[in-house]
Structure formats: structure tokens, C-alpha cells
Design goal:
The chain is of the alpha+beta class and about 160 residues long. It has helices at about 5-10, 25-35, 45-75, 105-115, 120-140; strands at about 75-85, 95-105, 150-160. Strands 2-1-3 form a three-stranded antiparallel sheet. α3 (about 45-75) packs across α4 (about 105-115). The longest helix has about 30 residues, at about 45-75. It starts with 5 loop residues before the first helix and ends with a strand.
Length: about 160
């Protein structure tokens, strides 16, 4: 078992107080580990420390990253899928497989996160992503393709979001 990184324990907002100390791990043991007095904890202790740090930190780190993406940073979507648009006769773009890497503004990130937290299924998340791609990629924020009605986002081969 890999030893947990020391900085994750030190950065805990309330220090080493009882948060990481459980009946099987005393607060003093945690303090010794943080001070470096215990260089290589027993495998079972290392596993418990790592588990506790991950349990408390990962949700907070993810929440901060989501908050930043939804308010200021936005997200980047990288996809390879079949994309096409529906528009008035004569201006439609046929469906075809495209590989896109597009930066989505914060409002689209917020919509995706809100839908995900509300328990939306893959279909709904796919629709929200298609709407975002329509506005950002196809319409370029309103500078072109103003009559575009719908973007079809199907046959997804690859889909990745990055904060």
C-alpha cells in the first residue's frame, strides 16, 4: 500500500483533531506521522490514513473545481461523435463524425453540473452538451448560423470533459 502524501493531512482545515483519529488510529499516531516521526506506517495504518484523507478531501476538491468551472473557468469538451444540425431548407449541415475540442463557457458547465446533481440521465446530459455545442461551436456565440434549430449529437465514440 502506498503511503499517503503528508501535505494532504497537514492541509486539513482543522488539523489532525479527531478527524483522522478513529478507534484504530489514535490522534497521537496521526500527529507523529504528520511531524515525520513515523516515516513508514504499518500497511494497515497507511491504508486507513489514505482512506480517511481521500474520504474528506476528494469531495471538497471536486466541489471547488466544479464551482470554479461553473462560475469563472468553464470546461473543455473533447469528443469524437456524429454531429449535424437541423436548419431551414438549403442551409443544413449533414451529420458526420467529427472530432472537436471546444471550450465551453461557465454557464454551460453550470447547466451540466446542475443536471448531473439532479440525477439527469445520460440522454439529458447529451442534450445539454448538444445545446452547448450548438451555441459555442456551430453558432460561434451568435456570430453565425443564427437560424440553426438543433444539433444532433449521436454515435459518441469518445467524450471527455476537462476543468
Amino acid at each position: 500500500m502506498q503511503q499517503p502524501e503528508r501535505w494532504t493531512i497537514r492541509k486539513h482545515p482543522r488539523g489532525t483533531d479527531a478527524d483522522l483519529a478513529q478507534p484504530s488510529v489514535s490522534q497521537r499516531t496521526v500527529e507523529r506521522y504528520v511531524k515525520g516521526q513515523i516515516k513508514k506506517p504499518r500497511p494497515d495504518l497507511a491504508a486507513r490514513l489514505e482512506r480517511e484523507v481521500r474520504k474528506r478531501w476528494q469531495p471538497q476538491i471536486r466541489a471547488r473545481a466544479r464551482q470554479k468551472a461553473a462560475t469563472t473557468g468553464g470546461i473543455v469538451i473533447d469528443t469524437r461523435a456524429r454531429l449535424g444540425c437541423t436548419a431551414p431548407i438549403g442551409s443544413t449541415d449533414e451529420d458526420r463524425v467529427r472530432h472537436l475540442t471546444v471550450a465551453l463557457p461557465p454557464q454551460h458547465a453550470a447547466r451540466l453540473f446542475d443536471a448531473q446533481e439532479a440525477g439527469a440521465g445520460d440522454r439529458r446530459l447529451q442534450e445539454i452538451t448538444a445545446e452547448a455545442l450548438r451555441e459555442v461551436y456551430f453558432q460561434d456565440g451568435g456570430r453565425r448560423a443564427g437560424s440553426l434549430e438543433e444539433v444532433r449529437f449521436t454515435d459518441i465514440e469518445h467524450l471527455e470533459f476537462d476543468l
